[in-house]
Amino acid sequence: MKTADFDFDLPAELIAQQAVEPRDAARLLVAGPDGSARGAEHGVVGDLGRWLRPGDLVVLNDTRVLPARVHARRETGGGVEALFLEPCAAAAGSGPWRALVRPAKKLRAGERLCTDGRSVELVVLQRDEATGGWTVVLEDAGRPQAGTEELLEEVGSMPLPPYIQRAADEEDRDRYQTVYARVPGAVAAPTAGLHLTDELLGSLAARGVERAAVTLHVGAGTFRPVTAERLEEHRMHSERYELSEETAEKVRTCKERGGRVVAVGTTSARTLESCWDPGSGVGRSARVRAARGATEIFIHPASPPRVCDALFTNFHLPKSTLIMLVAGFVGTEEVLSLYRHAVAERFRFYSYGDAMLVERRG
Questions:
Q1: Beta strand 156-157 with 112-115: parallel, antiparallel or unpaired?
Q2: To the nearest whole number, what is the mean pLDDT of the chain?
Q3: Contact of 5 with 333, CB cutoff 8 Å
Q4: Which residue from 36, 46, 118, 304 could staple onto 334, CB 3.0 to 4.6 Å apart?
Q5: d(Cα 45, Cα 177) in Å, to the nearest integer?
Q6: Fold exhibited by the domain 3-65+174-359
Q7: Which of 246, 187, 244, 194 is closest to 217 using CA atoms?
Q8: CA quadruple 207, 202, 353, 36: dihedral, nearest 10
Q9: Domain ranges of the chain
Q10: Are 192 and 264 in contact (CB under 8 A)?
Q11: CB under 8 Å to 22, separation ≥6 — which residues?
Q12: What is the pLDDT of residues 148-178, one digit of tens each?
């Protein structure tokens, strides 16, 4: 398949710059029976219970977004911005992290930069010539035991995506975070979950819709464009994940009772599919195994989902791996039909935009 097959025209004014309030007031587009805009329905996210059934299982990604963007200043007065990506070792603590730093050309290994009016310093340790990134560390001389995540909470800001053309503010610390965020580690939000509220989740539970959690720490690679001409030539970015025995058991019992496994967001889908037990079959017979690690899974029409029965998601970038993932559920032409419909109906796109619900064909 060709990357160009997943292109579409998107007016810039449909790229959401602010989130709607309340969260579940965002609009919802539900695919028609054939997975396309034919027979599609409109609603708001707060109406999600109209399309979910008792016995269904919604799977949420409980990663927590770190305030991972740090602004610092060199002794010369020049400004530097660092985006903390992940710790260099499994136990983060106060150790070094991998980061994207800009501008990077004049930085020297070992250079210490001050953060805005704080005692915390950003130390750039080593350049990775292969990726262009840096190994960095945050330090506070007065608190040598302070961990990186603790210091990021003090001096960092929320890493809003590049297509949001404004600086992050204090409201984003809450709004660019799901209400069920629990495990720190992401540098981008699992954006479908931004629409859900405690009240909505409670109403779904009252209707007999069950809930399970996975963890996938979203990395900056989620915004990386696909530059390969053909899908099979694209190398996916790696992201850390964990799926518990409890969630694996909930998936099994959901399938056995005839319910649907509904992934909330592409990150939940990637985690579930990464943990698929290949000896179990596809669809109703599919099972997952508890696991943790890093995944580079690439879901698309030629490599469709095996575990997930439905997907609740936002509207994604043209020619991105995310729109390709959605096409894995319903097909390329069907997804493009839905996207053209969304544009015509003025749905809002990307992280702070509206949502859609699709069901896997077959």
A1: unpaired
A2: 94
A3: no
A4: 36
A5: 17
A6: QueA-like (3.40.1780)
A7: 187
A8: -10
A9: 3-65+174-359, 69-157
A10: yes
A11: 197
A12: 999 999 999 999 998 999 999 999 999 999 9
Query: What topology does CATH give the domain 69-157?
Result: Thrombin, subunit H (2.40.10)
What tokens were used for 323? 């729109």
Strand partners, 41: 30
Q: How do residues 113-143 score in pLDDT, each as one tens digit? A: 999 767 899 999 999 877 778 999 999 988 8
Measured from the Cβ of residue 10, the count of other Cβ atoms closer than 10 Å reads 16
Q: What is the pLDDT of residue 3?
A: 94
CA distance 357 to 338: 10
Asked whether 148 and 137 are in contact (CB, 8 A), the reply is: yes
The confidence score (pLDDT) of residue 77 equals 87
Q: Is 168 within 8 Å of 155 (Cβ atoms)?
A: no
pLDDT band (50, 70, 90) for residue 220:
confident
Supply the DSSP symbol for 171.
Answer: H
Amino acid present at 215:
T
> What pTM did the predictor assign?
0.94
Is the separation of the CB atoms in 125 and 180 below 8 Å? no
Written as six digits, the tokens of 311 are 């997907």
Same fold, 3-65+174-359 and 69-157: no
Residue 257 CB neighbours (<10 A): 12
